Amino acid sequence: MWEPDDAGLIQELHSTIETTRYLSGAAPWSREKADERLRSWFGEQARDGTTKYKILSNEDGRFIGRAGFSLFGGDRQDFELGYSLRQQEWGKGYATEIASGLMDWFFQRNFAQQFIAFTNPDNAASQHVLTKIGMRSRMPMIIDGLSCPTFEMTAGMRSA
């Protein structure tokens, strides 16, 4: 879990156009936005039992990024898998390892019988990760005016 003074890590993670181009707003995060997101993740953890967590390397403890589940949607809320990695960690297989591990954790803890994930339409790397862990494509969702590829995973798909 995050520490109360980790907003600097979050801001660093989302400090460039490259690391935010596929996120809502597509702009580097201010310290205020990082503080707000950190507070929201503490709130999600208390309310829902899950959130976006701080990801550290097993080998040396360095900060890699954030990943986890949050509730998404209006009347019908779904758990949504999301992750962001530091740019220097891209291409090392961490996204697939993290997404796969979180999928197992999610179903072992019985949060729900399914979860979703969506990506910016131009984020082919993330779409590849989601299909690689076995998620299947479903009807796109409109997010920030974009038709975003959307994926789902059910407990039945995982055990099949």
TrEMBL record:
GO terms for molecular function: acyltransferase activity, transferring groups other than amino-acyl groups. InterPro entries: Acyl_CoA_acyltransferase, GNAT_dom, N-acetyltransferase. Keywords: Transferase. Pfam families: Acetyltransf_3. Residues 13-158 form the N-acetyltransferase domain. Transmembrane segments: none annotated. The keyword Translocase does not apply. PROSITE patterns: GNAT. PANTHER family: GNAT FAMILY, PUTATIVE (AFU_ORTHOLOGUE AFUA_3G00765)-RELATED-RELATED, N-ACETYLTRANSFERASE DOMAIN-CONTAINING PROTEIN. This is GNAT family N-acetyltransferase. It comes from Rhizobium grahamii. The lineage of its organism: Bacteria, Pseudomonadati, Pseudomonadota, Alphaproteobacteria, Hyphomicrobiales.
